[in-house]
Amino acid sequence: MFRIAQFIVGFFMKIFFPTKVVGKQNLPKTGSIISCNHISNLDAILFATNTWEKKYYLTKKEWFKNKLLGAFMKSIGCIKIDRQSTDVTAIKNCLKVLKSGKKLIIFPEGTRNKNADMELGEVKQGVSMLAIKAKVPVVPMYINRKPKMFHKTIITIGEPFELDAFYGQKANEEVLSQASKLVAEKMKLLQEQVTEIQNKKKEKRKKKIKKEA
Fold first, then answer.
1. What are phi and psi of 82, to 5 degrees?
2. How far apart are CA 213 and CA 114, in angstroms?
3. In whole angstroms, what is the distance from residue 13 CA to residue 211 CA?
């Protein structure tokens, strides 16, 4: 089901929402958490259809209300979570995915970021909690713009890092808060690096146009 969906959906996505993924070499071969900013409902689909390996995604339970849609979502790697409470079942399913060597994608802002300047919202503690419990690396990822039809979106995958300084500690509020700050710092750093590269390219294009004029 996943491969069929990936092929069919991917075909149309590549036409209407062209996407380039930069930094694929940074993805670990073992279990890991990909921590990404969240700007549209297409975020997960863009990534899934532009990378071959099946990955898993934390998805709000509302998407599973329809049984047929819910079965489809589950088949392509979506893990249902109740965002209004501590969903123990979802946590267990995530840990199972990570310990089996698979990759889990989480949007730690919890909801779509509607900031015009793309500034990262509050990074919640789910990424750090799961990374510490499963002892897996975290991979920051950044989507440079809200997807627009026939405009290229660039997804940048940063270098993985570990929260090993927190391994073995009780995952209390203080520990998770500190670990989440580190996750946020790594995500913001990646965003700054991507923005700097984009600004340099824009400046270079402006100079070229000015020179040709």
1. -90, 110
2. 37
3. 36
Residue 81 DSSP SS3: strand
Give the span between the Cα atoms of 66 and 199, in whole angstroms. 44
- Identify whether the C-beta of residue 125 lies closer than 8 Å to the C-beta of residue 109: no
From the number of C-beta atoms within 10 Å of its C-beta (0-12, 13-18, 19+), residue 197 rates as middle
In CATH terms, the superfamily for domain 2-212 is Glycerol-3-phosphate (1)-acyltransferase (3.40.1130.10)
Per run of 10 residues, the mean pLDDT along the chain (length 213 residues) is 78 92 94 94 86 86 80 81 83 94 92 79 92 96 92 95 93 94 96 91 84 74
**Measuring CA to CA, which residue among 55, 29, 25, 50 is closest to residue 159?**
25
Among 123, 104, 144, residue whose Cα is nearest residue 186: 123
User: Is the separation of the CB atoms in 194 and 171 below 8 Å?
Assistant: no
Parse the chain into domains and list their residue ranges: 2-212
Tell me which residue of 141, 192, 137, 189 sits closest to 160, measured CA to CA.
Answer: 137
Q: Is the overall model pTM greater than 0.85, yes or no?
A: yes
- Among 152, 148, 151, 141, smallest CA distance to 193 is for 141
Q: Which residue has the tokens 């700050």?
A: 181
